[in-house]
């Protein structure tokens, strides 16, 4: 008879096989494709000697008011999001390194409308949050279990384990100033806020402040909910600056010197700005009058927030706040309740 240790070692592999078979069954049903996922050209294009395909499946990704039908392909170090084009062909929409990803359950802050918590969870990567809605509670649990396990394992292989992160405090006191913190790969945005407040000597909690990301990839600053990993966001920009062939590596050893400073190209830089939540809400309403709405924002209360046409790198250092904006001649603060636009406008 097998020992207890042997049975424990064999159990994960049995679970893996069962989950993989279930996922493939759902995948084939959803895509009407009888072929094995490993034979898919998109999957083949990501295969390499140090990467293994794990499972795939159909999912709905919801952000704000938008719902998209997508297909997920999970590898040992990578998640690939694709759109089904035919029975066996998929169009790549995005890909994310697992070491830079996160999961959460604050679905109400990411998408509009009701979402079944039994079949959904928040899935994110720099700098995106979306609600992943699966066809069954069983499929949701399978994906959540594998993602959390793989994310944890890839973070254990991260190099370095901590990096210096510059936090700019804006609208805190009478002037703007900054602090550089040592942030690890498991520190959340809320953890970083608390560390920044302590270093800056400011009284308050993570509920009183928001951490924003000003990224060269985005045309407007991006507010973090609190569960994201600033380390992963920063490292994603650094890794994207690496030579081709090492970009997707979880822990490239070349990450030294200028790669850990601000000496990156403008489009690959990112800044972290700490702002009081109440002032950030005013900024959201003000910028509504300056730029049209796009559905990419991940937080419903920020869904209509867009920044000015130019990047706010310099604005982040400004010591003044913009005045509240207007909509149809009325102050936004007069027509909005709890920082939300009226339903007719939505």
From TrEMBL:
GO biological process terms, semicolon-separated: signal transduction
**Ranges of residues in domain Ras-associating:** 161-279
The source's domain of life comes to Eukaryota
Report a single Gene Ontology molecular function: GTPase activator activity
Question: Which Pfam families does this one have?
Answer: RA, RHG20_PH
**What is the official name of this protein in its record?**
Rho GTPase-activating protein 20
Q: Please name the source species.
A: Phaethon lepturus
Print the organism lineage.
Answer: Eukaryota, Metazoa, Chordata, Craniata, Vertebrata
């Amino acid at each position: 008879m097998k020992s207890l240790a042997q049975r424990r070692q064999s159990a994960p592999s049995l679970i893996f096989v069962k989950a993989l078979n279930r996922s493939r069954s759902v995948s084939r049903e959803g895509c009407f494709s009888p072929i094995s996922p490993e034979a898919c050209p998109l999957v083949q294009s990501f295969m390499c000697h140090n990467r293994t395909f794990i499972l795939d499946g159909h999912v709905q990704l919801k952000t704000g008011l938008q719902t998209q039908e997508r297909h997920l392909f999970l590898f040992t170090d990578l998640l690939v999001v694709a759109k089904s084009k035919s029975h066996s062909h998929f169009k790549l929409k995005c890909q994310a390194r697992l070491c830079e990803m996160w999961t959460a359950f604050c679905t109400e802050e990411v998408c509009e409308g009701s979402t079944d918590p039994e079949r959904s969870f928040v899935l994110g990567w720099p700098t995106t949050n979306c609600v992943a809605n699966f066809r069954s509670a069983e499929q949701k649990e399978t994906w959540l279990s594998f993602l959390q396990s793989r994310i944890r394992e890839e973070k254990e292989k991260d190099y370095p384990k901590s990096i210096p992160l510059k936090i700019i405090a804006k609208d805190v006191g009478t002037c703007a100033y900054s602090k550089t913190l040592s942030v690890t790969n498991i520190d959340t945005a809320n953890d970083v806020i608390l560390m920044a407040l302590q270093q800056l000597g400011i009284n308050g909690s993570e509920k009183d402040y928001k951490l924003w990301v000003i990224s060269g990839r985005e045309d407007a600053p991006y507010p973090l909910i609190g569960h994201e990993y600033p380390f992963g966001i920063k490292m994603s920009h650094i890794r994207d600056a690496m030579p081709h062939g090492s970009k997707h590596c979880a822990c490239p050893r070349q990450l030294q010197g200028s790669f850990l400073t601000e000496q990156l190209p403008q489009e690959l830089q990112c800044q972290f700005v700490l702002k009081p939540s109440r002032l950030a809400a005013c900024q959201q309403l003000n910028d509504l009058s300056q730029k049209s709405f796009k559905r990419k924002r991940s937080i419903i209360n920020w869904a209509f927030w867009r920044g000015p046409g130019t990047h706010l790198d310099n604005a982040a250092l400004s010591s003044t706040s913009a005045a509240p904006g207007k909509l149809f001649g009325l102050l936004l603060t007069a027509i909005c309740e709890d920082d939300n636009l009226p339903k007719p406008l939505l």
